[in-house]
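ingest -> fold -> write
write: protein_1
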Amino acid sequence: MVDHKRTFLNLEQNLLKQKFASKVLKIEPAEHGVDFFFKSENDSIKFLDYIKSNLPVLLKNSKQLISHN
């Protein structure tokens, strides 16, 4: 998956420290990375701002409705 597992371990620890884990609905491995799913767009924007400030990222926005109550 990654050459440097410490990078993902460090990222995971920082995300837990910043309390992002409670805002993520689901995390799935993707063909060329990882997909994160959130309850609100605002949560995802805060998450992306944090990630972009620490790692190089490739961003793809999707506005697909997952479920409807």
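write: protein_2
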Amino acid sequence: MNATDTSHLSKVTPPRLLAIKTRQEKITALTAYDYPLARILDEAGIDVLLVGDSLGMSRLGYPSTIPVTLEEILIHLQAVRRAVRRALLVADMPYGSYHVSSKQALKNAFRLVKEGGAEAVKVEGGSKRFKLVNRLVDAEIPVMGHIGLTPQSIHVLGGYKVQGKTPDSARNILDDAQQLQEAGAFAVVLEGIPRGLAMEITRLISIPTIGIGAGVGCDGQILVADDLLGISFLPKPKFVRQYVDLKEIISGAVARYREDCLDGSFPSEAESYQPEGNLTVKAFTRKV
């Protein structure tokens, strides 16, 4: 990229993600849950920001993503929306928000777009979501699919286990990817599958694949930002690369602040407001 090339600053859209895949370049994606971090990630040039239901475990202290509500997604989505200028903003549809009927799913997806400012929604599941994805796309709502290890299905899957390890399972996941493409999804997240399977899916479908625990052969990668930054209290999955330990940095800063408060060195004179003129304590003393 030369000094006058500003293409990396232009707005990211679903068609642009497809163009990145076509050029055989890479897509970058991260989760975001609040204004400050979303602004930092957006200004750093990340292509896709996902307000994921992973916020339930990362920020709300839930044991899984299943308890996350649509209202909780909306609160965080609205905060992120105020920060994002360039990235494509995608919102997770949480568990229970699209499972009852297409009418319910449309109503909730509309809320994420109209009230939350999402530019696309993400739903978990492959072939069984064909009609839902098609209906959302018909309603002018871009849809990102999510297959492989789907966290909303952990009770059925028996936990957070790698999927697609057997020939039958691999064929089912490949079929899921093809069905999502046919239904109109603009991209698909591949989570927790063997890298060879992810490479084959990426080769066979024309829409971008975004990997998380799926190897380097995907069109792009996504991580939970809290894992990347080292501010998660959860066990670190094998596929996570932690780039900094913010937990240690923050803990150290807070410890120094506490010490300075206790020994009286904070606030200093320079950090305190001074009176104007010759104002003294006597000026505040009431005459009897």
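write: annotation protein_2
Residues 1-7 have pLDDT under 50 and may be disordered.
The chain has two domains: 7-245, 249-284.
pipeline exit 0
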